[in-house]
């Protein structure tokens, strides 16, 4: 288990050009080609993970199946991820050895949250950069899809803004991140935003 720091930066869509200029002015560079990410999020019938995220309490989890296509999740091309936020820090476990069909149809049993079933799917494009020896990602064209009875709804909601995140190892001092990345911080959860978008 390796803890890591994740800081979401408050950068609006209109400031994207300025952010990219700042990255390259600070000797940053693009790590990989931009790619599509698609995640199906799970929760129990009480929506406990959503409520925990909204309240910011710890410990809490997010459980999702992730792939790199907007088409149906496929065996061998998807991963089961469990993100845990605890008092000690944040960490993520990733498994590619799981029964995808079973989880997508019957749900996933978690020792803390019990039986969790698919609730929403989130698709977006992610660009990867490295600046000040720290990874920075930019997510855009974010779309939220509600799932009812294991079926994806034809109705979608779209995020009007971009999401910028700094990801660093736990050994990186938080003071360093605040000094080098002098942007305001913001709380943002794609899962919470997706659920909230369908509660309006």
Quick take:
The chain is of the alpha+beta class and 200 residues long.
Structure in words:
By secondary structure, the chain is of the alpha+beta class. Helix content is 21%, strand content 47%. The protein has helices spanning 16-25, 48-55, 100-106, 174-180, 190-199, and strands at 4-9, 29-43, 60-67, 78-85, 90-95, 108-110, 114-131, 134-148, 151-158, 163-169. Strands 1, 2, 3, 4, 5, 6, 7, 8, 9 and 10 form a 10-stranded antiparallel sheet that branches.
Reconstruct the topology from this structure.
Elements: E1 4-9, H1 16-25, E2 29-43, H2 48-55, E3 60-67, E4 78-85, E5 90-95, H3 100-106, E6 108-110, E7 114-131, E8 134-148, E9 151-158, E10 163-169, H4 174-180, H5 190-199
Antiparallel strand pairs: 1-10, 2-3, 2-7, 3-4, 4-5, 6-7, 7-8, 8-9, 8-10
